[in-house]
Design a protein that fits this description.
112 residues, alpha+beta
C-alpha cells in the first residue's frame, strides 16, 4: 500500500515556532474528530485513525486533501492515540532537525 494522506491542520503561532525543530509533544492534538458523529461514533473513528496513522509531515502551506506543499525531508514516525475527541501524540517524538522553510501546517499519513 502506498502512503495515504489522512488529513492536516494549520499550526498555531506557538506550534509554528516549535515545529521548526520539529518536536511532537506527548498529548498534543493532531486532528480533532468532529462533525455529525455521536461521541461513540467519534471514538470508533478516532481509534481506527489512530491505529492507521504512522507518520506526520510538515508543510509550507495548506496540504489540502492530498498532502501538497510538503517540505523535502523525511516524514516523522509517530504513535497516535485517540483521547478527548482528537488524535493525540502518544509519546514525544523528535523529527528531522535540519529543516529550511517556514512550517505553517502539518499532515498525518498512513504508510505501510
Amino acid at each position: 500500500m502506498a502512503a495515504v494522506f489522512l488529513g492536516g491542520k494549520a499550526l498555531t503561532e506557538s506550534e509554528t515556532f516549535a515545529a521548526q525543530l520539529p518536536r511532537y509533544a506527548a498529548g498534543a492534538a493532531v486532528i480533532a474528530i468532529t462533525g455529525d458523529l455521536t461521541s461513540a461514533g467519534a471514538a470508533i473513528a478516532g481509534e481506527a485513525l489512530a491505529a492507521a496513522a504512522t507518520h506526520v509531515s510538515l508543510h509550507t502551506a495548506d496540504p489540502g486533501t492530498g498532502g501538497a506543499n510538503e517540505l523535502a525531508y523525511s516524514r516523522t514516525a509517530v504513535t497516535l492515540e485517540f483521547a478527548t475527541g482528537a488524535l493525540r501524540v502518544a509519546s514525544e517524538t523528535t523529527g528531522e532537525t535540519a529543516i529550511s522553510g517556514t512550517v505553517t501546517h502539518y499532515g498525518v499519513w498512513a504508510v505501510s
